[in-house]
Design brief:
There is one protein chain. The protein is mainly alpha-helical. It has one domain: Up-down Bundle (Growth Hormone, Chain: A). It is built from 18 helices and no strands. It is globular and about 65 Å long. The chain starts with 12 loop residues before the first helix and ends in a 22-residue tail after the last helix. Pfam families: Sugar_tr.
Length: 465
Amino acid sequence: MTTHLIDDSPLTRYHKKLIVACSGGPFLDGYLLSIVGVALAGASADLDLDASTLGFAGAVSLVGLFFGSLIFGPVTDRIGRRVMYTADLLVMILASVACLWIDTGWQLIALRFVIGAAVGADYPIATSLLTEWIPKKSRGAIIGLLSVVWLVGAVVAYLVGFALTSVYGPESWRWMLASGAVFGVIVLLLRMGAHESPRWLVAKGRLEEAREHVSDVLGRNVTLEEIATLAADEDSPGPGRFTELLRGDYLRRVVFCGLFWMCFAIPQFALFTYGPIILSHMGFSGDGASETLGQIILNLGFVLGALPGMRWVETRGRRPLILGSFFFGALALVPLGVWPGAPSWFVMVFFFLFTLINSAGNILVFIYPNELFPTQIRASAVGLATAISRVGAAVGTFLVPVSLDTLGTGTTMLIGAAITLLGFVISFFWAEETRNQSLASAAQTTATPADLPIGTTLTGPNGAS
């Protein structure tokens, strides 16, 4: 049996360094997109924001994320992963620092849009680069780790917000928004000296450069014959154009990735962005600090639930994990919808249960988009799937405060359960099993992209439907 140069390689010191460096992006993403959840309380009073403006300020980062991922995914496929690897971080840092001088609602919205665009750019950049270096035996767990680190960033954001609110009051909201620049500089330093993806290099015909990068990472002299084998494995029937994602099997996969990601993201972003507001609607004291403390507990649930998910994704597979997470997550939200006036302990128990279940399957949001597409269009696919997911997430996040005010807490929770159940239905028909496959094998389609209608149910490479 032939040993694949990358898929069957050992985890080297460079791999571990790359994991830390690439994880810095999701950490910043989680931090920057979540710190606003605490900061909005102070910003709303200071800037006199009405309900609609408040909703837009919370959701506009997702709008920016839509454009950032949609635009910079194809750019990353065209000019390379390494070039874009640090540029997006510089934008995050500068926009975060600029938050110190916000004095109008439109400035808050504009800067949150820019930060969202930089976050959206990082999704296809960092996840594609890491996916294309990691061996297959640990690929699912390591790519899933990025989702865990995203959650860690969100938890740290609320800890920082809680500390600043407790010491300096809600008026410290500008410093909360600017604090992301500190972490951004740390991540920028960690990313210095990264190697380009060898899969991307061979896809562009730059075999000698790929040989040099892989030799340095593996600590031995890799031959051009080995690189040629990698190039043959990475060969795609298409030219690697963005338009390939808009037809046939690739389109079905993009829509699947975008929709299931959206069904995970809407309730998750609602909790991250408006968690303290939702808890206050469900009977918490309303003093600010207690709701934030409750939010920290829920965010810890998101982190803890992802840890067994990282194991199950390799031992049980991608498809069982996504189906179970959606089904049982929906069941956890139903009691909150049926009894919205429940005691605080009841609310926290079922919210915490939902966070555990949701986060176990949520690790797949980076795994599936990176595994189901070839190297030539991988970043574009991740970017497009991200954009699709953020359309629904932005609309959903914008409507949360409106729904709480007009429909009530119970109905809002039942809507969240329905969205989660929709994710189960989508995954039941379209989720494929890619566990323990080479990256090239997982990305293979059962027919040429132009041959199949979007609604066709396919069998994956290992027989999963």
